[in-house]
Please model this.
Amino acid sequence: MRPVAWLRWASLLLLVTSAQPCPQGCDCIMWDVFCSEEGLAAVPLDIPLNATSIVFVETSFSTVGTRAFHGSPNLTKVVFLNAQLFHLKPDAFGGLPRLEDLEITGSSFSSLNADIFPEELFHPLASLQTLKLSSNALSGLPEGVFDKLGSLQELFLDNNVISKLPARLFSRLRSLEQLWLQHNAIAHLPRTAFSSLRNLTFLSLQGNALQTLPEDLFAATPSLAALSLSHNRLETVAEGTFANLSRLTSLTLSHNAITHLPADVFRDLKELVRLYLGSNNLTVLHPNLFQNLSNLELLSLSKNLLTTVPEGVFDTNYNLFNVALHGNPWQCDCRLAYLSSWLQQYSDRLFNIQTYCAGPAYLKGQMVPALEQRQLICPVTRDRLGYQAPGLEDWELGSPWDLVAEERVARSRCTFSNPEGTVVLACDEARCRWLSIQLSSRQGSGIPGLAYNASQEWDLKSSCGSIRVTVSLEALAGDA
Model:
């Protein structure tokens, strides 16, 4: 820049600066005003006319008067951060036709009632796009307080103590895209709470006290892409709750008390990529629970009460490679063979290095991803009279049959078995001490038994090596 031109520019800047003085107790940088003087008694009357944003940080004045910013029609952003506000006069934000961003956070309002937060307070702000009312100790909201905010796109009501939402609170917010309601005390939601929010893409209800959800709560929010319901008290979710959320990509249900999920609860979530079900009380999964989730990439089942998963449960999840499984009491027997095989084929073993077997005793503490198929066997025992113990379809975890088998195997150094798990031989360093043979399953199974006066061989394997077992069956003549 030429010296003469630079001098002209500097002179013009000085002229503008002198014509637009900064209010006392504030700092001005270009078109931004920052006020952090604790002694500031009220909203300054001499805000520069060309200012587009003003921020109050930890100021001590408690009231915003009527049309407090009327001399600053160019403001697009007003922020009160940790200010000691207790009262806002009616039409406090009148005269701000261009305001797009209003933030009032960290104050100590008890509620948005007529004395503190007049219902018409935000009515002049037709251009407002973002409203932040976080961390204000708000306990209630008047039903019509947002009625005139037709351009609002983001609404933050998080970290308050709101316990109830009026049914029509959001009914006029047809442009709303993001709604933050996390960390409140909401125990019940009206079925029409979100019925006007067709453009809503993000909703957080995390950290409330919800025990149930109305089945059609999300019926009118087809654009929803991310939904968080974590850290509530949900015990189940009705089958049709997510029926209209065909664009949902992220669903968080972790940290609830969910014990059961209906087979078709996720049926319509064809675009779902991330599903978080960790830290619940799930004991079983329906075989078709994830059937239509062909785009699923991440699934968290950690910290539940799962002992196994149904065979084929992930067969239609073609993009699923990360499944969090730690913190479950996995029973590493033949019923876990499907999960073990799936993990070895499709999942990164490092993703579940803290996923351990809770039983049987001889595998307790072993990492599930490191298991080999031959280790996953179901012991077969016989009672003292020689009758066959319950088969797999009868076996209940923790039953006497199971406990006896586990105790015997736990005392053995090596456990050999055939691939089917029907022949199990337990040996210590000196000798083999326990042999279990299931010659046939239940009647009509199609599996032949061992004929009288015949023998049969089995090749058994374990981590100790291989061994061959031969059994001969000889019928003895009875006494006359």
